[in-house]
Predict the 3D structure of the following.
Amino acid sequence: MSKNVVVIGTQWGDEGKGKVVDLLTPDISAVVRFQGGHNAGHTLIVNRKKTILRLIPSGILHTHVKCFIGSGVVVSPKDLFKEIEELETAGVNVRDRLMIAPTCPLILPYHTALDNARESARGSKKIGTTGRGIGPAYEDKVSRRALRILDLFEPEYFADKLKQVLEVYNAQLKHLYKTSEIKFEHIYNEAMSYADKIKPLVGDVSNTLHQYNQQGKNILFEGAQGSLLDIDYGTYPYVTSSNCLSGAAAPGAGIPPHSLQYVLGIVKAYTTRVGSGPFPTELYDETGAYLAHKGNEFGSVTGRSRRCGWFDAATLKRTVQLNGITGLCITKLDVMDGLEKIKIGVGYELDGKKIDLFPFGAHAVERCIPIYETWPGWKESTVGIKDYDKLPENAKAYLARLSELCGAPISIISTGPDREETIILNHPLK
Ligand code: GDP
Ligand code: IMO
Ligand code: MG
């Protein structure tokens, strides 16, 4: 029987999902992206060589693995081929191993234009999006006017739909945001230039994954973003525009929910956030700067500085519940080496009441005052440790406390960016 794993971000993204997906790939046959778009930036470091993936699943460096982009993903053809060509230049064969669902909504230049126009208009209240057109593309999907990959193969139908969509977009861009209109020919010609290129990559992802399950092949579902950026349960409106929870893998890949046997929650040993929105345990002092510098906390997609703060167990308690986490993978433990004292957020005071579970929506989270426990740090280096017993005692105590507060066991501990720098306590696939 196959054993499938969902790898999910449990915080505000950038927890180290890419590294962990790559690490587990030797034991699986397929890696599937099921939501988000090229707003993701997943970093893989193998033998000190860095690869950053945005849309292509993080299994691509292993030649035995097939990679799939499911229907829940919004696809910019231009950025897809940019990434494919970058990988091919680096000697990675992508085209024979990638299949994309025909029903993926397209991200076209007007989505990016509207994303950026909206952000400018919001001024100090901007979401801090990645500017990749993700929100507008998902809006088109749910309002049932999206152009999808399969429409590229029917030029007349595509042209008709595009004319209708542009009426909506140009009215907004011209009258509301006072920016230039989008020209039909420009979008049409550019989109059509990708039709023949993308065609060989398009296939029935859902049915292929069904066959894989029947053949007992293991599948890994690679989440993007993080649970606190989830459109329903995150710090709305400071969220992304898709569901980023484990359950989203089923509709996003076209598989039944009982195909998801193991949910691996990736969690940074501290907390980071990129973009705007409330972050109760954020540090504005030299400790925050220390974590940002040591953890190299700069966005892999936009290069923006990531905000840093203490570990927040109330957020994890919520996301462990929402995702049904089977095991946790704690990443970047090594970044905390050398801290004299370490704080753990264990809950909040919200409107005069004590709570230990993350509330819903930005408005409530903004009013949360964190309650901390203080733990002793460790002086020793944990960089590259592969054996749990070799960890400093204070690091072990910190990890045990995190696990206890979150309500989930730890399966993996990451002690460096490289594939090899990992402690495996319980392998999700063995
Ligand atoms: P993702 O979006 O969740 O895949 O994460 P990103 O790739 O955007 O950001 C995680 C960053 O941390 C990358 O630069 C990784 O190379 C790096 N990283 C992952 N695990 C570790 C770790 O255990 N220690 C250190 N120091 N860096 C790590
Ligand atoms: P990975 O997969 C961290 C954030 C943006 C912004 C909000 C909405 O690498 O973890 P969007 O462009 O999606 O409309 O932006 O979501 N965001 C991420 N933050 N990691 C990501 O992906 C993110 N993808 C989106 O910064 O706050
Ligand atoms: Mg990232």
